[in-house]
Amino acid sequence: MSNILLEIKDLHANIGDKEILKGVNLTVNEGEIHAIMGPNGSGKSTLSAVLTGHPAYTVTSGEVWYKGKNLLEMPPEVRSREGIFLSFQYPVEIPGVSMVNFMRAAVNEHRKYRGEAPLNASEFLKLMREKKSLVELDNKLTNRSVNEGFSGGEKKRNEIFQMAMLDPTLSILDETDSGLDIDALRVVAEGVNKIQGPHKSCIVITHYQRLLDYIRPQIVHVLYKGRMVKTGDFSLATYLEQNGYDWIKQEVGE
Amino acid sequence: MEKVKEIYTNLFHNYREVLRMNASEAIDARRDEAFALFSEVGFPSDKDEKYRYCNLDEALKVDYGMNLYRMGIPAHPDDVFRCDVPSLSTRLYFIVNDLFYPSKKAVSLPEGVLCGSLNTLLKEHPEIGSFYDRLRGEDNDGLAAMNTAFVQDGFLLYVPKGVCIDKPLQLIQMFQGDIDILANRRLLIILEEGAEANLMVCDHAITSARYMSDQVTEIYVGKGANLQYYELEMTHDKTTRVANTYVSMSSDASLLMNSIGLENGLTRNNVYLRFEGRGASADLSGLELMSRNQFADNHVLVDHAVEGCSSNQLYKYVLDDAAHGVFGGKVLVRKGAQQTAAYQSNANMVGSQQARMHSLPQLEIYADDVKCSHGSATGHIDEDAMFYMRQRGLDEGEARMLLKFAFTSDVVERIHFTPLQDRIKMLIGKRFKGELSKCHDCKICP
Ligand SMILES: Nc1ncnc2c1ncn2[C@@H]1O[C@H](COP(=O)(O)OP(=O)(O)OP(=O)(O)O)[C@@H](O)[C@H]1O
Ligand SMILES: [Mg+2]
Fold first, then answer.
1. Are B323 and B294 in contact (CB under 8 A)?
2. What is the predicted ipTM?
3. Rounded to whole angstroms, how far apart are CA atoms B55 and A248?
4. Cβ-count burial B236-250 (b if 16+ within 10 Å, e if not)
5. How far is it, in rounded angstroms, from Cα B377 to Cα A172?
6. Which of A32, B107, B337, B445 is buried most deeply by CB count within 10 Å?
7. Cross-chain CB nearest to A77 (options B383, B395, B406)
8. Which of B391, B403, B407 sits opposite A80 (nearest CB)?
């Protein structure tokens, strides 16, 4: 049996007084790709925000174990340095902070955490070049401020570029496919596959099967009203694509 | 405050003859009238609308020493002090408290340019005297009047018609001494028709007593002339700076004025700029970085007295801890000043619960064919951006610093002199990291 990378047990989380996650259970083993699907507003992005430590959410009960460590005790930056990466559904624009400076700071923080010396300027630029080509990111984008004025598709491509730079152990891709054109979707998905490895895992949040055709999950979950209501293999994604969610809503008694 | 006023009143009367000694005709001729105004209006007080948020009482109550007998300092400033903005120029001048020192290095300037001690040059070139203390005019600032009554020296830059000084000039004003000091500082900058110059003025305090500078700066930008004027304050919590700057813009003149406050105690900058000929343009910007109990108040009045001129103001503040910032900007477009373009913007980033910002933008327009806008925004650090950066592995402090640094970038980019811009960026980074050295390389303190 492979090793457990992430284990979520009966996780409840609020935003303000409103409970959004109402008892989520999920186990991700090393090397696995999981898909999480589910209707709008069911809590998918909330789950990714809670896993990465967004301060706006409060965990009211439950546990999350990552590499055998208590994830909920770590601040967001430590989770990142421990190898958790979130490709945001809505990447944030940061005017005045250049992509280059941002990525240099991020890469070197990760290196420092591992006890490695910071990259010098030429090593860093070499790494940038290499990873840019992986997702065919336009040079002019890395010369600009973080996400500022990027098109929707460019932002998503930039997320995967950052993922390539940081080489995470657990990637959470929150609707990375939205905003990407057909060709870009293929390029970005292939980029993700190149980053994956036998000890790395991925949680892909999406509404459509087309992304899953490229990044093929072994396990597919349906999150509905803050709970995992269905788990299956790849065929579940195909079934949802054709039949929507009504049957699930009926099954849970609505 | 009546008591403090009385002290300075007695000082003026008792030392009137001392003040006359050694003084140039131009400086001495203005004293009595200025003193009469000071007697009438007194010190600025927070009952005065313009000084509502700026209380100078505590700073004024300090028993400062004034260097009436012009005692020199033991070591030449060139030997003991390296400004954090070095080697931008070989043309370096010093004012220590209120004493002028030229650089020890040889300085050559184009024919006809006068640059150096205000008092000495006014004696040698009495014809320049007609520019002295002309712009203070209708402004009744008590501290500007007090400066005029007591001032004994300062800095003069005179650039004749058509002359361009290619390299920047740098004036370092510093406080040095074990006793509390009040310095009357005076700058007179005259660019005749078509002249060009680039001047950088740095304020430092290299020892740690309490200091106050009462500064008056008069700037004439002649017809078609072009001036870049940069100010940098790097003093400390025990320094008070009150600076009144008066600018006269002739037709087609252009001015770039940029003022950066990295470390200070209590600062009040008043800028009065008046367009007197058409086709002129002024770009005014400022940045205040404050923490602890620091206070800075910039008041800017741009007076579009004639048609066809443009002005653009951008002032930004970053406030942490219990810092307090004030911005009062007024654009006045007088009757008949058609085709005026006037923009004013004030943006502030408040990083703590105790920090405060008062923004008082004002437009007063009496002409109809004008393009004017003003805006003011005070906000906190963008929490979404903070989280995004932390998700990539940056810790909170570093993320916050990058965001603050980003916030300052458009003001810094208004510095058109690239080596200075780079230097300022570096110093801002250090400031946010808390690594700014106030006594960098200084050989005075052990
Ligand atoms: N700041 C907030 N205040 C109140 N409710 C919120 C807040 N943020 C999110 N919610 C609510 O939480 C619920 C879950 O939102 P979430 O973004 O996790 O859904 P999602 O499954 O990612 O949806 P989508 O597929 O549309 O991206 C929604 O009902 C949303 O309105
Ligand atoms: Mg979502």
1. yes
2. 0.97
3. 68
4. bbbbbbbbbbbbbbb
5. 36
6. B337
7. B395
8. B391
pLDDT-derived band of residue B84, with 50, 70 and 90 as boundaries? Answer: low
Q: Is residue B102 part of a domain?
A: yes
Pocket flag, ligand 1, residue A20 (CB < 6 Å): yes
| B413 in contact with A, Cβ within 8 Å | no
Per-residue pLDDT reduced to its tens digit, A96-111 = 899 999 999 999 999 9
pLDDT computed for residue B437 by the predictor: 61
Chain B (345-404) residues lying within 8 Å, Cβ to Cβ, of chain A: 382-385, 387-396, 398, 402-403
Which pLDDT belongs to residue B175? Answer: 94
A161 contact B CB<8A:
no
Which H helix or E strand runs over B299? Answer: strand B295-304
How does pLDDT run across A206-216, given as a tens digit for each residue?
A: 999 999 999 99
Whether B406 is in a domain gets the answer no
Which residue of B388, B395, B402, B403 to mutate against A (max A Cβ within 10 Å)?
B388
The number of distinct structural domains making up chain B is: 1
Tell me, yes or no, if the pTM score tops 0.90. Answer: no
CATH of the domain at A208: 3.40.50.300
Residue A46 has a CB neighbour count (10 Å cut-off) of: 21
Chain segment B193-243, per-residue pLDDT in tens: 999 999 999 999 988 899 999 999 999 999 999 999 999 999 999 999 999
